[in-house]
Amino acid sequence: MSRRAFTRLALATCLLVTCPFTDRSLAVTPQQVKAEQIDARRAELQKILDQYSAGDWDIVSRTLQKADGLTRAALRALLSDKEAGWKPARAAFALEIGALWGGGFFFDLDTFTRYVREILATRPTPIGQNAAEDRFELLCHQIALALLEGAGAWPMHRNYLTAASPRLVKIEAAYPNILNRIPLMRAMDAAMFCCSTVLAGKAIPLVNMVISSNGGLRPGQTPPPTPEYAVLMFETAARHAGVRQEALVRGAFVLEKYDKVTEGLAMVDRATEPGDPIVDYGAAIIRAGLLDRAGRPAEAADAYQAAMKIGPGAQIPAIGYAAALQRAGQIEDAAAAAQHARRIPANGFDPWPTFLRADARFVPTWLVQMRAFLK
């Protein structure tokens, strides 16, 4: 063996056998490595948060597309820090992440909306003394709840409402005329708590998955509200001008699903003022369904036709229109309508799933409004 080869063998022997026993205090555990990685990632995330606070609103979508485990752990450490103090941008930052990640991993929404709620609760200014901060907080709560609605995370939605209720009640009392969707959100929460399998069907698949995992009521647990109570909550929400039409339409939807035709028609017919197209479409579809149940096919056909004008790319009202015409005895018109329905692409835009996802349709606009409070 050459001298060079012997030297290499001796060095390798030292590294593999002797060196590990020279100083055990230098050994690094996996836990220490992980903690150091989390700390390093947290420092990077703090810089991203600082840039976001300075007005770089797109930095979250640019830098945090990957929802990996290390980033999640570092974000938990960053956003749950009790020593950070009240900073509005921290709550907004958590909402931005929830909006970005919520569609990829269901329970991310629960985590980040909870951080939003906890951060907002650290506000040092009492509710009612700073109108701008109060409006910012209300908007953040609405965005968090809207994200949960859009994911069909109704049990989590209920938990959020319960935990945030003391502060929401104070804000509503301090600003009775403020544009506020919380009363409607409470009504939708009650309806989904009692009637999710009836109302949601396959349009929001996660609802039934989460509800069915509860395994029934635990001892001392409050039973779900009745459909009648949910309708009463929608009537209460309808007292607020900003959500009146939608509250009446959604209340009528509950009544339709429980075959309360007369009451449902009376409720939806009170929703006369036009709202946004999603609610108008929902009203037309629900009215058509109620008229079908009432055995009034000609009027149902008119309602389906109204829905077709709002959602021309949707097959459901077109099929309903053809079927209603056939039941009304208008056979030739029904055949023409059926031909039209067949020509509509199956993947055409239907506003109905958007209607079922409730306030989620406002999230992009609300995020822009939220950022304006940070300037």
What's the arrangement of secondary structure elements?
Layout: H1 3-18, H2 30-53, H3 59-63, H4 69-79, H5 88-101, H6 106-120, H7 131-151, H8 154-174, H9 182-199, H10 205-212, H11 227-237, H12 244-257, H13 261-269, H14 277-293, H15 297-310, H16 315-327, H17 331-343, H18 352-356, H19 363-372
Helix pairs in contact: 2-4, 5-6, 5-7, 5-19, 6-7, 6-8, 7-8, 7-19, 8-9, 9-11, 9-12, 11-12, 12-13, 12-14, 13-14, 14-15, 15-16, 16-17
Give your account of this protein's structure:
By secondary structure, the protein is mainly α. The chain has a domain at 34-152 and 363-375. It is 69% helix and 0% strand. The model is unreliable at 4-28 and 202-217 (pLDDT under 50).
**Average predicted confidence as pLDDT:** 85
Helical/strand content category:
mainly alpha
Oligomer: single chain
Count of helix runs: 19
In short:
By secondary structure, the protein is mostly helical.
Please name the defining characteristics of this protein.
elongated; mainly alpha
